[in-house]
User: What shape does this take?
Amino acid sequence: MRKSVIAACFCCLLALILATAIGLKAQYSDKPAGQTEAAPPSDEGPNKSVGETVIVPRKRPTQPPQPAPQPKKEKIDPDEAYTLRSEVDLVNVGVVVQSKKGEFLPGLQKENFRILEDGVPQTIKKLEAAEAPMTVAMLIEFSSLYWEFLYETMVAAYGFVQTLRPEDWIAVIAFDMRPEILQDFTKNKAAAFGALQMMRIPGFSESNMFDALSDTLSRMDNIDGKKAILLISSGVDTFSKTRYDHVLKQVQASDTPVYAIGTGQAVREWYDARGYMGADTNIGFLQADNQLRSFARLSGGKAYFPRFEGQFGEIYNDISASLRNEYNISYTPTNPAHDGKFRKLKVELVDADGKPLKLVDQKGKEIKYEIRAREGYYAPRPVE
Assistant: This one.
């Protein structure tokens, strides 16, 4: 029994010691009872798995993520959609109306013209007939290939410059192996004459006419107003890099008329009459003349082949009058396709009933006339 009393006293003492320890811990602790103490801060920065400003890394998925579904495109009503359109396909055609006697016929109105593109009538937006300064690039063959033609060539060049008005622009370009701009566009006749005086002794026996004409056409494309290329040449090409068919297409695509003066006609006839010119040479010259005619016809210009010096004055006046009395027609084609294809043009004069227009002189006699314009153009190519 004594052992039982001692065991009970030992248990009471142990319970008292535990209670005292718990009370002391609660008295000196800053945390409420039952709350665990936070771990000390780490030198490695903030904990990347918890906190308000820290992104919690996601668990790696067991399967690869699937792409988010694309939103369905809404159908747009073309009648309600806003479309910005600009009329960029404006075609300009220079037209010369001249009687069979060489007289120009001014005073025609927009209603008097009808223009067909691939046989389809077009609506003319604007007709300009006012006299304006002309811009001429004089392209001169300066080669020793046919030195007998040089005098006639220089007579033609000097004589044309002399007929220019103070408001006209002129550029002088010579070519043999390659074109060379001796004088860029200027209103100063003295400067143009100075450029011609540089052409004294030809240095090469080449005449790369196709290259020279192609280069000059490209330079003239950015010039507005009444413009032309005056090509003074024998028409012979030696070994141009540019092919003849390519130049023809470029002439058709350009809005710059080519007026050609074929040189050496009198000299050729003199040699031919005396048997100095072989059959092959004669055929070559005929082909050269045909090339000049093609350049002029396709561009809406004209080709001249003077046989004596007295004809030059008439030629100068005709070229100047053609440019100054030229009608300029502008229209937007009904065919909007950008296919790069050739569009054939035809210009007619019509009356109020759509019939061919009849013109009469002061005596009431009918005037026979001809219409000169380029035969067509190439549509723009699609934008890649």
